[in-house]
């Protein structure tokens, strides 16, 4: 696993045995299923939880749109928006779980972390959704 300048501590997981006994190995070879430094594992978990909170917010937003927002000028737009938000939240929760697993596996194998497109996809999707909502609000003209 490539270390970056922001990695915490002096612990070098490549030199410590997976049994945690403190025995070191001088070979630079990759070992299968070595336990990564717990700080990296906890950082990976915090990242997963951040994605999961975003997922829950999208689901809650979908429910709120359906239950609390007045009808738009277009019949069916409110339930469609609610379904889009809720579905996006559900998909994000599955993608976040898979990302957590892939990163954990890469750390155990001391490999480079897999690339992710989650931030870009989420950012673009939310920008498109924002434009959709703004158009609905403008065309609804303040109807209540």
Percent strand equals under 5%
Q: What series of H and E elements makes up the topology?
A: HHH
- Report the total helices: 3
Largest sheet: none
Q: Radius of gyration, Cα only, in angstroms?
A: 22 Å
- Compute the average pLDDT: 82
Low-confidence stretches: 1-27
What form results from the Cα inertia axes?
elongated
Please identify the structural class as seen in this structure: mainly alpha
Account of the 3D structure:
This protein is an all-alpha fold and 144 residues long. The chain has three helices and no strands. The protein has helices at residues 38-68, 77-108, 118-140.
Summed up, what is this model?
The protein has about 140 residues and is an all-alpha fold.
Keywords summarizing the entry:
mainly alpha, 60% helix, elongated, disordered N terminus, 144 residues, 3 helices
Topology:
Blueprint: H1 38-68, H2 77-108, H3 118-140
């Amino acid at each position: 696993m490539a270390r970056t300048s922001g990695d915490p501590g002096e612990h070098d997981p490549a030199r410590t045995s997976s049994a945690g006994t403190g025995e070191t190995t001088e070979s630079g070879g990759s070992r299968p299923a070595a336990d990564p430094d717990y700080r990296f594992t906890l950082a990976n978990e915090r990242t997963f939880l951040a994605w999961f909170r975003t997922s829950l917010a999208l689901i809650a937003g979908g429910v709120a749109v359906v239950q609390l927002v007045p009808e738009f000028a277009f019949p069916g737009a409110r339930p469609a928006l609610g379904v889009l938000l809720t579905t996006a939240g559900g998909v994000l929760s599955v993608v976040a779980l898979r990302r957590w697993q892939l990163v954990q596996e890469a750390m155990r194998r001391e490999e480079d972390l897999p690339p992710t497109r989650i931030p870009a996809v989420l950012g673009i999707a939310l920008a498109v959704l924002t434009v959709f909502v703004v158009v609905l609000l403008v065309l609804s003209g303040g109807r209540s």
